[in-house]
Amino acid sequence: MRLDGDVKELLGRLPEISALRDRCRAMAMLDAIVSPDWESRYYSFNSAWGEGEEMASMRDGQGNDWFIVFTAAGVYGRGFDHEAPNAQQVLRAVPSVFESQVAEPAFADHEGAPLATVCFWREPGDDEWGVSTADLGGQGLFELLLEGTPQAYRLWAADYYEVDLDLAAVEHVYELQPLTPAVIDRINPAVRLSDLHDDLEEIGYPR
Question: Highest taxon of the source (predicted)?
Answer without folding.
Answer: Bacteria
